[in-house]
Write a structure and sequence with these properties.
This protein is mainly α. It folds into 2 domains: 72 residues, Alpha-Beta Plaits; 191 residues, Up-down Bundle (Rhomboid-like fold). 62% of the residues lie in helices and 6% in strands. The protein contains 12 helices and 3 strands; from the N terminus they run βαββααααααααααα. A 3-stranded antiparallel sheet has the order 1-3-2, covered by helices on one side. Helix 9 runs antiparallel to helix 12 and helix 10 runs parallel beside helix 12. The chain is elongated. It starts with a strand and ends in a 5-residue tail after the last helix.
Amino acid sequence: MSTPHKLVAFSKEQPARLLTIYLKEQGIQAEYHYSTNEYSHAVMLLQEFDQIKAKQLAEEFVLNPNNEKYQTAAWQSGETVNLIADKSFSAAKTLYDLKQAPFTSSILAICLLIYLLAMLGVSAPYVWLKIQPIGMLVDTGQWWRVLGPALIHFSVLHIAFNLLWWWSLGKQIEKTFGISSLLMLFVFSAVVSNIAQLLVSGPNFGGLSGVVYALVGCVWWLGWLKPSWGLSLPKPIVVFLLVWLVVGYIDILPVQMANTAHTVGLICGCLFAWFLVSRAKSPRTL
């Protein structure tokens, strides 16, 4: 028998067990596995050749875990698994999340602080972080400004959209690969996407969305390149974000979007996923 591979992991036991039962009912060898991580309830595949079919079934489950067919499979197997939504707020769990993903939490807090200061009339952070034309950067030597636009936002919807995606995807990458990998991805995608947007439209832009699209590209391609690592995005989510990217270029929205930063960020994320997989395959020297 081949080594078990993680298909998907959940923060609760019920969905993991329910999916495991359904996969077995579909003829796929799978088992439930518990660990001490945040996403501690994992579904493990016992046969590598089942990966493609199992991944498709897992994506369907994540999109609609309350479908009757999953409970039916549980009943037929003689087990009953109740999916009860946990709507309670847990301060301890939130604190645990923040501690487990310190870099993700830090960037989130910095963006919120800068935005709140701006709402109170304190514009100094915006002035200090705003990117400058390349020629001016060469003269002033203020190269931190190539990262600056990723930390400033201009509306509630703007910052809410970016920080929700940053928190959701950033902490997954940080917990899986460590703080150094997320830091590298953040700096790489922010610098490259910000400079690209600067060259196309000038210095009047801001937002974490270039980095967010890098996270999307990274997790999306890791799901294809290395599904056993357990990171992936459901296809409808990927389609939605790609359509949103195209809508920005059509210019039918009431706000101006940093389309170049989005596109370049997405490419940066895909390249970084390839880098992570290549690094994992490279032999280590002693």
